[in-house]
Design a protein that fits this description.
3-stranded antiparallel sheet; 8 strands; homotrimer; 139 residues; 5-stranded antiparallel sheet
Chain lengths: 139, 139, 139
């Protein structure tokens, strides 16, 4: 069984956001699979997908603080500067964190660990709504 | 053909570890496939999966040295601090390195390059045994 | 339908390179699929695959500038030094950026966003031609 759907996340402010439930609303088909995989792919170069702790929100704010230092705004060696101070750092963060996730499906559910959740990294100040492609297959 | 198995790695000290052989012991089913993929997924937010050199062990210790500087303990801006000094750096390292790998299968074997091996990044001082989900499909 | 092919990219200088078209030449089979996935896997530990902006080439040179600072040559704590100054940084960059991509296929085409392209990160000064394994499946 193959299923694919393209959908938009609601617009979010810059930072890391727990989106597991928002994503699941768009892929009810996973409930029909005993074994499978879902691949989530974000069609942007300034926002990322990753997996991290689903409990304490300070993990998200600390990740934002870390990556703001790791990929600072206005680094003197940037040449790609005409789309705003947040643009080149957003490309670096997306390269570092990645733009897709492949998550196993077991008995109709995502096989996430107890503490794992899906994160959107919104790396622009005003990124707007972001488009994801979810591809599901299994049996 | 789909096959999925969940298994635990033996507990390992903090650092990077070559786990190709330990993983292969749990997925003998790949031998039956001429073309396919295996997706390895670690169900934790403080340990990572990556691929790097399978030969010189100083690559592993240098990666540990690099990421300890890239994601330092006790950074003054961390707010997620109550699980230990090694906890927030472990979340950052996992975000940076990733929690899953998809590796091609060719003629019954992982299609790794000559120098490639699968790495566990154990980012906690005492992480204990780690749980992996391996999903195999192919023909 | 499963299809797998192993091919070489032309040798490229150190830096980030847009390789979407070069890759597509090797996987014409995607045109036959309405829904599917392609997994690109690079069989090396000193070159990476990522997705980023396909338009302004200064994104590529700024990424090179960033990662050269993030993973510097001749860091005093490196012990893996006998393969050249560019070698251990190349392993770090590959760990950070990743060695595989899974991209959805929709109606016979890669479902990349408008501004997305596939990047080779060539992290050695003289890396030579690099080998990729492309695995395609879908319906």
């Amino acid at each position: 069984m193959w299923h694919q759907t393209t959908f938009q996340l609601s617009a979010k402010p810059r930072g890391f956001h727990l989106i597991t439930e928002e994503v699941l609303q768009h892929i009810p088909e996973i409930a029909t699979l005993s074994i499978g995989l879902v691949t989530l792919f974000i069609q942007h170069t300034s926002a990322s997908l990753s997996i991290n702790e689903n409990a304490d929100p300070t993990v998200r704010s600390d990740l934002e603080a870390h990556f703001n230092r790791n990929a600072p705004e206005r680094a003197p060696y940037y040449r790609h500067i005409y789309e705003g101070d947040d643009d080149m750092p957003a490309h670096i963060k997306t390269a570092t964190l990645g733009c897709s996730l492949t998550i196993p499906i077991t008995n109709g559910r995502l096989a996430l660990g107890t503490w794992q959740g899906v994160y959107l990294g919104e790396h622009r100040d005003y990124g707007g709504s972001r488009t994801l492609v979810a591809t599901i297959h299994g049996e």
